[in-house]
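Translate sequence into structure tokens.
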Amino acid sequence: MTFTPLRAAAAIVAGSAMLVSMAACGTSDSSSSSSAGSSSTTQGFDTSSVKKDASIAALLPSSVTKDGTLTVGTDTSYAPAEFLADDGKTPVGYDVDLTKALAAVFGLKAKTVSSTFDSILPSVGSKYDIGISSFTVTKDRMEAVDFVTYFKAGSTFVVKKGNPKKVDTSDLCGVTVAVQTGTTQEEEVNADTKACKKAGKSAITIQSYKMQTDVTTAVATGKAAVFYADSPVAGYAIKQTGDELEALGDETGVAPEAVAIKKGDSATAKAVQKALQKLIDDGTYKKILDTWGVSSGAIDTAEINPSVDD
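Result follows.
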């Protein structure tokens, strides 16, 4: 989601169209190496100093290590967590940097595969070794995969500057809301529209998009009145559109985000947990988050399948 600063409504439309074309590879399921030699002009954290920990690497099953690569499914339309650099093909973001760091601890090469968000979890353990794509931990998702926590984030509503459509987040009945397909935000808005109907009010018009870039574009161009997304993503979108957008209301529902692992693969889960904790303890994790300006989401302890309210 590499936005160009926009200063007028016409510029928003033009810029948004460019953004969609730049991020189009996010739906192609094409793969890119996430090695340090990227041609991207977007600079992340240099993970070249992260060394292999043999004792942690030994925990991984051969199903992960046999090809020498840690293959990670990621929706690269979710800046600043995971998105495509200015070349339109190189994955960057704090999740991508964490992928590189994890792979280094395991002594593996990191490969980030650009995928649509809702296609990742069903493919973890087959197409991908793990999934790292800002997955909020929920009970429903834990029925499908195992999780290892690495971040925490809430959700934020975003509107055009000045809230021209007078959106009231306490009553979204009759409002057009943009969300990304398969996210917890989509689930929440779907629940809200059912409540609207039950109360005899107009339903919410929900615009669900495969890519977050399209979600942001919908509000920037006036197609939707408001979008709802993870707070770091919302904040990044606001900054990169030259403050033509703004947050509406306070952050809500802070919850853990986690690495997705094949259900029942306790060996990989333990290895990922140990590797993440090592990165947290030695300061590498914090440096990565600081690089992307998201250290407010830092956690102290990586947990396997934490208890959550749902």
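Note: The chain has two domains: 24-153+256-297, 155-253.
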